[in-house]
Structure formats: structure tokens, C-alpha cells
Design brief:
Helix content is about 20%, strand content about 25%. The protein is an alpha/beta fold. Strand 18, helix 6 and strand 19 form a beta-alpha-beta unit.
Amino acid sequence: MSLPLLPRTAPDRKALLVGDSTGAFNSANPVNPRVVTHVTSMQSGHGWVVQNASTSNLNDTTTYAMGTQSASITTRTDLVATTLTKTGLSLNISGTKQLRVLIRVDGVDFLQGLNVYVSSDSMVANFGIIYIQSETPDPSVRWLKDGEWKWVTLPWQSAIITGNPNLTAVDSLRIRATSASGTTCQVRLQAMQVIERRPVAAGGIVCFTYDDSYAAQYTIAKRDLDKYGFPGTAYTIVSNVQAGDGGNSTYLTTVQLQQMRSWSGWEIGPHAYTATNHNRGWAGATNTATGIIYGTNPLSAAELDTELTNTIQWLESNNLSDGFVGHCYPLGRYNTAVQQQMAHDGLAYARAMTSTANSAETMPPADPYAIRCYTLDNNSVLATLQSRVDGVANNGGLLVFCCHDIVTTPTTSTQFSIANHAALVDYVAGKSGVRVMTLGDVMRSVAGQ
């Protein structure tokens, strides 16, 4: 079954990159930004230097995605960081420019940390650290998938800064990797580029997105956003809304969704048709390091196709969709095959469920079928959330918040404080230049620029 509602032509998902084709796919629909400076594609004579590796191959002709080789480093077992460094550069990544890297990790279940350092004084006293790997133990949620090449854009708004790095005169770049004690993993660097940020994100964009159709998204979230004329994005579980229609006050009703869309400009997107299928998830995986299986009964490809079709048909039959349809992964679980199916079935984008450490996003997003976000939950600290807003306000880019239920006293990972929600929206409203948009409108703007 394929979706009759969305005539969008799917890209050729069979085209794989040259070299080792295993996991070469990096997005069903990559957004190709304007490249300002091509720093390296790690071909012969690239000049990068390795330190503290258990093994390395700076001219690895066995596994690559561009040209005829990549550079590979294997971490140590004793928690000492392994690095790959290039000095003597002269790069400008200020203003409308940002870095992206094409990278691959084999043995990602053992990876403990993966960072990029950016310095203007050879890593002496002035540098920023951008964390690019999520710490979740569930491989089907984790942003980097094992053995897959992935373009990773590096959002400076989330960098941890030491000193005062001069972004107009970057002279050094470093990849830093560590693995859990007693284990190793292999990191391959293929390319590094300076790319152009979309103009729409110059002053920073914030998106408020909401999952699972809780009633508080109307009574609390809409109220707080309406105060400033801000729209939100609601990813819908149809069976929950039908329960709301039947009198279950925990969930939104169809009428409330229609009012959110018609009166307040919200985007209403699919999340799942039934709560049962939501809880099965779209993908599963086993963590090699622990042996724990995540997602033991995910939807099959045929079931997912039906789930998407039914959900979108319900949205359109209730005047809740205009045909530009985005999604977010139930339980945050996805894999390459799921991303491919999303593109094949005409979904315009998909939001992932990344960690708080690598939650910042760029414009264009690194992967439109795995947009990074920051989860609002019972452990969220308002000051930390405000600092994330400061980052995007001061440096541009995209910050996507993911919220579920909103309650007075949150006690679970799907609950966020009513008081903190109101305070966060107020704080965003007080940031001059920051735009609040639906995630769907953000993704439309990517194509428009």
C-alpha cells in the first residue's frame, strides 16, 4: 500500500555512495547546502594527525564514501581520548556560516563520547566543543547509527566555550572520541566543509512541538503560545483523539485540534494511528555492549505503510492537514529502512528524539528525516532551557522543543511543568529577533531558500 494523498516523488533510495556500500545511505532526502569552503575530503596528503589511537589508518582505502579513501581511528580501551587533528587552517565560520562533517562510527554501542573541537589558537586556550553523539543506550533512538555514513552539521549555539575563539580565524579542527572502559570503536572521517546557513535562521528559530495528543496541549500549551501569537506543532495519535472525543479528558478532541489549526495556526501532523502501534514503535535494535533488546515487536514495512495511510487520511478528512506532512518517530525509534519508507510514502520530514547533549539543530537540518530536538520532561531545569534559547538567539540556527503532557508537578519523562512551560514561552518571546515557527513551516522554508 502506498499513500494516495501525497503525490510527492520519492528520491532514488537505491543510489549508494562509492566504496563500502554497507550503511552508505545517510538520508532519504538530503538537503544540499551551499558549500562555502570544502576543507577536506581526506584524500592523499590531507595532513590530519592522529594521537592516542589503539590503531589508525589515515589513508583507509577499504571503507570510504568519497574519492578513494577516508581516515580511520580506533579508540583505546583505557578511557584516554583518541584524536584526529588538523592545524594550519584559515577558516571563517562566523555569521551565516557553519561546519558540517561526514563521519561514520563502527561499534557505536561502545562509543562514550564524540566531539568536534574548533579553535583559533591551535587548541591552546580558545576553543569550542560541539558534542555530536547522543548518550541513549537504545540504538534505534540514537542519532548516529552503527556503520552508517552521516553528514553531521555542527550547531555553534550549543558549543561549550573555553576562552574566546575567533570564528573568523579558525586555525584548528579536532575530532575527539572515547569508548567505554575495556572496549574500542572505530571512527572514520570522510569530509569537513563550511556551509551556508539559511537566511531565515539568522536570528534563531524556536519550534514548540507536542506528542501524543494530551489535552494540556490545548488548555496549557495553546494558551501560553496564544499570548504571543505563536504557533505550535502537534503530532497526533488518532486513537487518543478518538478517546478524547468519547469523553476521556486526558486527551485532545478533534474539535480542539481543529481550533488549534484554524485559530492559532498550529501544524497538526501524524504520530500514530493507534496507541498500540505507537507503543510498538517503528524500529528495534539490540545494544551490542549490553545485550539489551529495544523494540522487540516493531511494525513491519507493510504495517507502517498502513499506519501512515490511515493517520494521514484521518487528518485530511478532518481538515487538519494541507498536504505538506511531517512526522515524529513513536518512542523515537527509527532506522535507515524507516527513513527510506518515510520518503517513499511522501512524508516531508521526520523529527527524531535526540538527547539533551546533541539537541541543537542547524538550518538546513543535518538530516531532514532525523531532526534533532530537546525534550521537555520532569528533569528539565528552566535555567538550562533558557540557556538553549540564548544560544540560538545569539548564534542563529534552529532549536526544536519536544513536549508531551504538561502538569502541575511532573514525575515522569513524558511530563513537563505548567509553570516552566509558561516561563519558557515568555522567555522566548522576550528574545528580540527569534522567530517561533511550526516545524513544517521551517522545512518549507528550506526548499524556498
